[in-house]
Amino acid sequence: MNIDYLIYLLTSVAIWVIAGVSYQVSIGFAGIMNLGFVALMGIGGYAYALLIRAADLNPSISLALACIAPIPFALLLSFLTKRVRGDYLALMTLWFSLVITILLMNLESITRGALGIPGIIRPAAISQSSTFAFFAAACAALLSFFAIKLQRSPLGTVMAALRDDELAAQTFGKNTFRVKIIAFVLSSIGAGFSGALLAMFLGFIDPVSFYLPQLIIVLTFVIVGGLASVPGIIIAATGLTLLPELLRFLPFPTETVGALRAIIYSLILLIIILYRPKGILGKVELE
């Protein structure tokens, strides 16, 4: 097997692990059904691309700014969804995602619209494919470590209380709204980072790079891996990223590979929902 292909797989897995763990912070730890997560990834990806191309900023600085670019939007989401939960929260965040996609598509003077932004470069220290892959893998490992630490911390305990019974948490004097804000912000930083890494990895982004198919992928990681389980996310992100690649080695026509990939994802989801409602290593069921 070609070494370049292995590097490609490692990079892809690492980026999706970062995205999955970041999403787990809000949906798994705090029980916030944020369907606007990929829009926050898009904000990070576009922030990075625009800063290095339009503003001619140093790529390393652009990467740092891309991580914090989604924070104002996460704060906005926090306040817009302050009094809603459950299905209504999911619906509002989904609409947020659609609005961001529409803006990215129509602000052509800034984002180039459907034409996308090509020629996205990486910081000099990780410009090579191999160094970029190991950088992404190291970041995925560090993020997973800190996510586990967060989950076991007092803040993580309050997040779990918010997820399991918000009213009971409020009864015990916990400021659940502040915890929601923290969960949104922490998740958005990871989203911005993973979006910027994805932009570097692809070298090109357009509004479709951060749309519903990517949301389905990340949400699938959570359902398969299990809510509130960081190891579950790592297993699911790794397995579900590598599994479709096996189709490349099977004698299927090229035009059917995409459809087969969707069918495989659907079958895995159905099996997990039927026989493992909590996912592979999940601690709670997705409601």
Descriptive account of the structure:
The protein has 287 residues and is mainly α. The chain has one domain (3-210). Helix content is 71%, strand content 0%. It has 13 helices and no strands. It has helices spanning 3-29, 37-53, 59-68, 71-80, 87-106, 108-111, 129-152, 154-164, 166-171, 176-202, 212-225, 230-242, 254-275. The protein is globular and about 55 Å long. The N and C termini lie far apart (42 Å). The model has no long low-confidence stretch (mean pLDDT 91).
What's the helical proportion of residues?
over 70%
Largest sheet: none
Low-confidence stretches: none
By secondary-structure content and strand pairing, the structural class works out as: mainly alpha
Number of domains: 1
List keywords for this structure.
single chain, 287 residues, mainly alpha, 13 helices
Which SSEs are present, and which pair or pack?
Blueprint: H1 3-29, H2 37-53, H3 59-68, H4 71-80, H5 87-106, H6 108-111, H7 129-152, H8 154-164, H9 166-171, H10 176-202, H11 212-225, H12 230-242, H13 254-275
Helix pairs in contact: 1-7, 1-10, 1-11, 1-12, 2-3, 2-5, 2-10, 3-10, 4-10, 7-8, 8-10, 11-12
Outline of this structure?
The protein is mainly α and 287 residues long. It is 71% helix and 0% strand. The protein has 13 helices and no strands.
